[in-house]
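Per-record layout

source: Adineta steineri
name: PLAT domain-containing protein
length: 225
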Amino acid sequence: GVTPLADTNKSDHYYYQILVFTGQRTNAGTDSKVYFVLSGDSDQTQVRLFADPHRKIFQRGGINSFIIAVPKSLGLLNYIRIWHDNSGEGSSASWFLKYIIVRDLQTLDKSYFISQQWFAVEKDDGRIERTLPIASEAEMQEFSYVLSKKAYHSISDGHLWFSIFSRPPSNKFTRVQRCTSCFVLLFTSMLINIMYYDLSNEANASSETHNGALSIGPFYIAPQQ
């Protein structure tokens, strides 16, 4: 689902949706608190905390959707500064962020911020804070990015079984509906197998009885004939 951020000021009425994509790598998810500042030509947000009181966020392979409200349009977006406090225990402290999509809910314009990096003191450059500039057309067309995005979408939304666990939050085909479809498919397959099980046994028995005879409907021709 989509989570409105709890620290939103009720007097703010300009809305953005932020989609955060966590990587599929081992220990890519985090339990640390993640903060951000979104900046545009006209303004920037205060330091905001990504939080959801009802479910865990930023789990491995997850897509989390948030709604933030600001007093006015930020203008053309320039960058998002994002970091975590490294408060997660053990391997849950680090985080691998794939990319972020910010959508202006008034104009429906989308902005992409590509990371594909660890936020971890023990990995790569050891940084847990990064400033991600808005992706250029060249970056968005990069083969690795496009391939990764398409592959993830194919598995998370196009594959019926996998999509039960990784359904995109904006998709109206719910997890319950997907799960129901899977069980219907499974039981239909089992029913068909049961229906043809006896026919298969009868065919084998008939074959043994006729000892290699050629069967045509109710008639058969033995090799001796």
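summary: The longest helix spans residues 175-210. The chain has two domains: 2-141, 159-210.
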